[in-house]
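Suppose a classmate hands you a notebook page containing two proteins, each written out with its sequence and a corresponding row of structure tokens. How would you begin to make sense of it? This section walks through that situation. The first entry is reproduced here exactly as it would appear on such a page.
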Amino acid sequence: MPSLARREGETLLKFFASRGTGDAGISIVADRREGASQTAKALVALGARVEYRTLKVGDYIVSEGVAIERKTQADFAASIVDRRLFSQAQALKECYPRPIILLEKNGNAETGVSKEAIRGAVASMVLDFGIPVITADGPEDAAGFIVVIARREQKHTGVAPGVKDRRRPKTPDEEKEYVVASLPMIEVSTARRLLAKFGTVQAVFSASEEDLQRVEKIGPKKAKRIREVSSTLYGRSMGDPRRDQDNSPESGSG
């Protein structure tokens, strides 16, 4: 008889699959090493578009701000012993504002690490690094969590995930790359091409949509987003709560 966790995972998988093309618009960037995992296969079964790349930070990127580090019980335990967990957590925080650790359980598998040590590591992730730890009951459940998070993120932003795997810049050129790569849908490699084309950060931000599209991998959608971000007045976007605050009676008093 299949375990309760497995049955729940299969039920979740069927639930999302029954939604037809409901999740077909979700895009997820996954590390190439995840390609053979059951979690990645479950993502495809759920209807998500998965693009594999070599990621320096995280295993799954679901938006510009959210990266997910997936760990099996054994990997989580091993990363506690060799301290890799803490360096990975630091890298996640440096590259993404809202990273997540997804701990994928595998029944009652022995890890060789005490439960107290595992609890302590989880507490450290939450309290010291500010990284939430989500526990999933197997690959299907883990894939379900990833899809739900991706759907929420991409529904609100309307932007496909962007890889931000660079740590804090150390040279003036890296600082320029970092600034340009902070634009929506722009990765570091594309930021370098933009800077090579226009020369300065200011020139990139001032370029027309037509000129931006002359750069490799910059299409109409990306060019439009760059112009919107660089030219729209702060606090004046439609739906921005600051619009109401600035126009309220209290805003002119004091």
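The notebook's second entry, a different protein, reads as follows.
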Amino acid sequence: MFNKKIKLFLITLVFMLSISAVAAVDANSTDDIIAGDVDEEPPSGNVNLLSASEDTITADSNANYSISSVDTGSYYSGSKYSVVLSQGDNPVKNASVNINVNGVSYNLNTDSNGKVSVPLNLNSGTYVVSTSFGDVSTSEKVKVLPVVKGKDLTKTYSNTKKYIASFYNSDGTPLKNKNVKFILNGKTYTKKTNSNGYASLDINLKVGTYTIYAVHPKGYKISNKIVIKTSVIASDVSKHYLSSKVFSATFYGKNGKVLAKKYVTFKAHGNTFKVKTNSKGVAKLTIISKPTSFKMYSINPSTGEQKTNTVKIVHTMSASKMTVFSDKTSTFKVKLYKDDKLVKNAKVYVYIKGVKKTAKTDSNGIASVSYKLAKGTYTFKSSDPYTGDSISTKITVLAPTIKAYNVVDAANVTSKYTATLLDKNGDIVKNKNIEVTFNGQTTTIKTNSYGAASFNYNLDVGTYKITLKDPSNGYSTTKTIEIIESNIGTAYNKYGVSEDGYSLLAIGRASASGELSKYGYTFYVTEFDRTCPCCGSHELYWSIFFAGSEYANWGTFPATGNGEGSSAEGIIVCAHCDSDWSVFGHNHGGSGGDLTVITPTKSCTKDDAYTLKSGKYVAS
């Protein structure tokens, strides 16, 4: 009997200890933690929501586990994704389950129903969610729906259409009577949703394209484009004076449809014009204005929008300013337009130094006038006789920057050709290159301390061309070297310079003090050493009858381009220091410094003077 009581007591004690152990397990269970306890912003990588305790269940490879999602299909951003872990028909509680959402892994313990949940704080789209417990895994595609919806908005300027967005809770129900935000053009606006979850924003912006953001209270946001279309379409206008081209603009109402048969306003030059649109909403304005540029304002009476354009009235002619050289004949060209097109066979008047010249346009609408002027700055006036329009063009004439001469020389004799380089002021240029093209070859020669560039030649009988170019400004000149038989005498060019450049021949009449009483007013010839006694240069030149007649006294000296007297008598000039002498070698200044005579003075004729002036004088 006693043994039976002991046995009963032991059985009761074991039962009570078992109950106590079960209670202890329940008291320490952590199966209440679900996804709602997780931060709304999911971290990257692995997330251990609970560390496995001694009571956490791990996978048994021999057990029959299964994983199933609670809901399938679509979820709203911010909602929760849940799965249930089962063993057979029974949920498995307090088991560590891994869920991977968009590359982020969560380690969670199942609750008493075998369920775990994670937040779907994702942008709208389709994602793959993978769940695993031991060797058991599953994956499915989950579609996340936006909790904010909106559409791009396009409207005409001043149209009252609003931007509207709909807002939702994470369960997809409308977000009612809650403050939401819109961000537009750098400003933030707070609006309250209505009973259907809609919120709107008035759009009062200038013409252009903008981005608007609709922001959910939970932070989710979307963006849309806002396009404000102009209600006035017009372009800048450029037209020639008195052409038929008009300024036109197309107008639209607030509804985006053309503003037909309505009066619109144009403003220009301080004047206001009311013009009625046609059936296509187009209004045109005829422009009659002198060449100028001004702003045209087109005002839409329906929307209040004002469009600004530039109207440019240009001359009926165009010409480019020119920089030329005084020793060359140049061509001035003028383009003529009629009704915005180049016109052929039409007259153009060009005034040069007050002298009117008439030219006709060619097939390209270009009228050309040739001219040759002394050094200086000029203004050419071009006039269109059809419209009365006129333009002025600046012409700059520079003095030649290379001094060179035609030469007559003897055959098969080594001689030297010399050219002088000058700047724009007529001063010599030292140690600079002159480009020389001669006998089919081009080379460069550097000037010496006198500004002279020289080269030797030995040629057969014939006439040769030599082209000299100043690389600094593009000026070029072409001269001739005429080679004659060497046994017929010494040749001199039109400036009296001998073929070797060392002597100067002068023909003329008395011009210095005391000469008239000695020689009378008849012609004489004298040969001099070509060296200036005043400056030592070899830039001595002769000329006669350069004033336009045999009796005029003052004119432009051919070799220098400067004004000189004694044209009727003949004169010798130094191009370097501007000293001058009579044909007998006497200094006109009367202070000494006479030229050195090589061949004594002898009588000659006026015909001899003309022969020397022509550059064909040969002395035996």
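A careful reader of the second entry would note: DSSP finds three helices and 53 strands in the chain.
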